């Protein structure tokens, strides 16, 4: 043991800033929130132990918890496939080897950088408002618009569109993946007279499967955590009629608006479990559809 | 000038660069207090002006001002409270003071009154609402009341002649119809106010009841809410208030209001905010009473809109007390503050601001004076959970505005939700 320490001391010394940071800024709060999730805690007076009270209330009585889950699952189910399709499509266009590809990459990546910002969410609210740009464009074609954001039937879709538009980071990863597919496979297919469409399904997609898998897992986690756009567009309330009550917005309000940090911690742990379950599901099914090149030998 | 230990240490501290270094508290004798308030651009400018004045008068005390909008204010306040680093002096609202006092985050001020803080010039009863369980926790820094800011020009163009200090809901509906007609539908009479629980409050109070009972339960009834939503539904059906798309945006900023956008002639605000409405539009703005149901009265009340409070985390209490006293007793400070936070609840304050009032402020002061004999008693204290009830009201009301639920069903749902919320918040 002593020899182990002596041999590795330098390593741990250089690691120590990260270890300290992780311990104090990540692990500590994580454990604290686990503890708080079993308490009633209003952020001012000391937490009061409540056992499983928070979880019981959540599952048994809290109508808005279920509403928040419904909104969030709908969003994830719609936005993740659409965003990945968009990212893959654009990546394939850019993969043609344009000379100005660097510029295009930057341009297409830009929305992702801006995406989480408050400015874009505000812009979105203006665009889809009753006298916003979207309705003005529709008016040109003689279509009468509506308050896209103020109608609970459509408000969620405006955020799905926003999420689609922020395809930059999966796009870059797809691009790298496409570059890694050996060209000779396509050449062989060309000689056999295989159509482009067939090439996509039989070569591109299978070869890209590990990258698709990676993007799917990451983007699903991202989508579950969506907060800023919904918060800003609904003025922090989840309005209209709770149609934008994303799980994180609900959690935030419980914690900081209604002083229920204990309950919010419980909500956060449930979200963690949900995300973990989805990730585990993705990994469990991956062996049926994800194949790695080195598995061939 | 008498040289005290503080002055001496402050000048030593100022001369020594060491004092500026963190981690050397023994040397950091420069006295600092933090003041945190929710604001708007006008209010922030006025407040920083007062901070400058105070620092000139007390060169040994440094005040750092922190400001943010209403919505984020309470988030930041809750976080600071949990973290044990609340500002020394904070601005407090009547909707939250019980929450914070109940949790021990605010210090009582009684021992400093007459001993650093002078309240001699205050109106009788002005600090009643800030007094909880016999102790003074919040000093009233402005009185206000519910109001309907209205576009004076639009009223004249449409020939509305109702008595705006005592009109009924029927007069109001009539005015909305006239304005909508006179503008050819380009300007509706009013915003749809059916989601403002503060406006419902006047409706409920005109029957002699409050939103909340003294024991922290509900006093408003399903019938109150139903009739209120049906009244607004009628105006919506007639097309004389703004449509649903503008209505279901909750907690709108000043620039999103119908009146500032020019799409309506009226909205709901508190009287002290009328000046801020005016600053965003060119037509002159006046203040009208919230219309009351025919045959009833006294729905309005005079509300201390904001309090100054000393927090649990305040360290240099003498400095904080000196600052608070300067705020409420120094004529220059009062003049710089104007009426953005409300009408000063002291003759000293009203005299100080009188010569500097703009036209819109004069309108507001006249309105405030004109309703004094028409206001009811101060309502029962707002219980814990009232903020959540407000959200539930807007949420359920939205379903009515969107036509998803009839008013009677929604009213029943809201009352049920509100009762559950209050029980949970107060267990």
From TrEMBL, chain A:
It is found in: Cell membrane. Keywords: Cell membrane, Membrane, Transmembrane, Transmembrane helix, Transport. InterPro entries: ABC_transporter_permease (IPR051393), MetI-like (IPR000515), MetI-like_sf (IPR035906). The chain crosses the membrane at residues 12-38, 71-94, 106-124, 156-178, 199-218, 230-252, 264-284. It is a multi-pass membrane protein. Pfam families: BPD_transp_1 (PF00528). Belongs to the binding-protein-dependent transport system permease family. This is Sugar ABC transporter permease. It comes from Roseibium salinum. The lineage of its organism: Bacteria, Pseudomonadati, Pseudomonadota, Alphaproteobacteria, Hyphomicrobiales.
From TrEMBL, chain B:
Pfam families: SBP_bac_8 (PF13416). Residues 1-28 form the signal peptide. Belongs to the bacterial solute-binding protein 1 family. It is found in: Periplasm. SUPFAM superfamilies: Periplasmic binding protein-like II. This is Extracellular solute-binding protein. Keywords: Periplasm, Signal. Gene3D superfamilies: Periplasmic binding protein-like II. InterPro entries: Bact_solute-bd_prot1, SBP, TAT_signal. It comes from Roseibium salinum.
């Amino acid at each position: 043991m002593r020899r182990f320490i002596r041999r590795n001391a330098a390593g741990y010394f250089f690691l120590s800033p990260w270890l300290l940071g992780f311990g104090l800024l990540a692990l500590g709060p994580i454990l604290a929130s686990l503890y708080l999730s079993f308490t009633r805690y209003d952020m001012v007076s000391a937490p009061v132990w409540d056992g499983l009270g928070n979880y019981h209330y959540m599952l048994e009585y809290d109508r808005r918890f279920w509403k928040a889950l419904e909104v969030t699952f709908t969003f994830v189910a719609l936005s993740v496939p659409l965003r990945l399709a968009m990212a893959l499509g654009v990546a394939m266009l850019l993969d043609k080897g344009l000379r100005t590809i660097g510029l295009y990459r930057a341009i297409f990546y830009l929305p992702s950088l801006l995406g989480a910002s408050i400015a874009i969410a505000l812009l979105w609210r203006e665009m889809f408002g009753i006298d916003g740009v979207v309705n003005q464009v529709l008016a040109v074609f003689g279509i009468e618009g509506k308050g896209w954001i103020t109608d609970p039937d459509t408000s969620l879709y405006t955020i799905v569109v926003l999420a689609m538009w922020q395809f930059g980071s999966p796009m870059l990863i797809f691009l790298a993946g496409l570059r890694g597919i050996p060209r000779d496979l396509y050449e062989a297919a060309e000689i056999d007279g295989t159509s482009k469409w067939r090439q996509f399904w039989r070569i591109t997609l299978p070869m890209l499967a590990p990258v698709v898998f990676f993007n799917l897992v990451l983007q699903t986690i991202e989508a579950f955590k969506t907060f800023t756009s919904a918060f800003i567009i609904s003025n922090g309330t989840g309005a209209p009629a709770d149609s934008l009550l994303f799980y994180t917005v609900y959690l935030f309000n419980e914690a900081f608006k209604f002083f229920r940090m204990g309950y919010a911690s419980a909500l956060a742990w449930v979200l963690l479990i949900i995300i973990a379950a989805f990730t585990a599901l993705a990994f469990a099914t991956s062996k049926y559809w994800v194949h790695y090149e080195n598995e061939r030998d | 000038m008498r040289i005290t230990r503080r002055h001496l240490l402050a000048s030593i501290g100022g001369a020594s660069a060491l004092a500026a270094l963190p981690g050397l508290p023994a040397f950091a004798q420069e006295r600092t207090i933090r003041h945190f308030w929710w604001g708007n651009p006008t209010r922030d400018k006025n407040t920083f002006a007062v901070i400058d004045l105070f620092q000139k008068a007390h060169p040994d005390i440094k005040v750092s001002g922190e400001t943010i909008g209403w919505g984020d204010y309470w988030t930041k306040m809750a976080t600071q409270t949990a973290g044990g680093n609340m500002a020394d002096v904070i601005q407090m609202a009547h909707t939250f003071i019980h929450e914070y006092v109940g949790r021990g985050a605010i210090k009582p001020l009684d021992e400093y009154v007459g001993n650093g803080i002078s309240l001699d010039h205050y109106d009788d009863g002005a600090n009643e609402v800030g007094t909880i369980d016999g102790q003074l926790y919040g000093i009233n820094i402005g009185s206000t009341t519910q109001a309907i800011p209205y576009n004076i020009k639009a009223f004249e163009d449409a020939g509305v002649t109702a008595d705006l200090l005592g009109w009924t809901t029927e007069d109001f509906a009539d005015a909305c119809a006239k304005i909508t007609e006179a503008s050819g539908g380009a300007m509706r009479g009013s915003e749809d106010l059916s989601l403002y629980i503060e406006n419902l409050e006047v409706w409920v109070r005109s029957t002699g009841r409050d939103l909340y009972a003294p024991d922290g339960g509900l006093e408003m009834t399903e019938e109150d809410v139903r009739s209120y939503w049906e009244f607004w539904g009628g105006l919506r059906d007639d097309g004389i208030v703004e449509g649903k798309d503008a209505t279901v945006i909750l907690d709108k900023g000043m620039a999103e209001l119908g009146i500032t956008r020019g799409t309506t002639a009226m909205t709901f605000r508190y009287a002290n905010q009328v000046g801020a409405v005016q600053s965003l539009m060119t037509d002159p703005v006046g203040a009208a009473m919230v219309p009351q149901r025919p045959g009833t009265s006294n729905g309005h009340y005079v509300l201390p809109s904001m309090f100054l409070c000393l927090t649990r985390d305040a360290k240099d209490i003498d400095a904080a007390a000196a600052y608070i006293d300067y705020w409420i007793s120094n004529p220059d400070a009062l003049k710089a503050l104007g009426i953005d936070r409300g009408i000063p609840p002291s003759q000293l304050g009203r005299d100080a601001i009188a010569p500097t009032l703009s036209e819109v402020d004069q309108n507001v002061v006249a309105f405030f004076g004109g309703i004094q004999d028409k206001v009811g008693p101060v309502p029962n204290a707002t219980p814990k959970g009232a903020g959540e009830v407000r959200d539930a009201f807007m949420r359920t009301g939205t379903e009515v505005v969107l036509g998803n639920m009839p008013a009677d069903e929604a009213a029943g749902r809201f009352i049920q939700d509100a009762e559950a919320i209050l029980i949970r918040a107060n267990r």
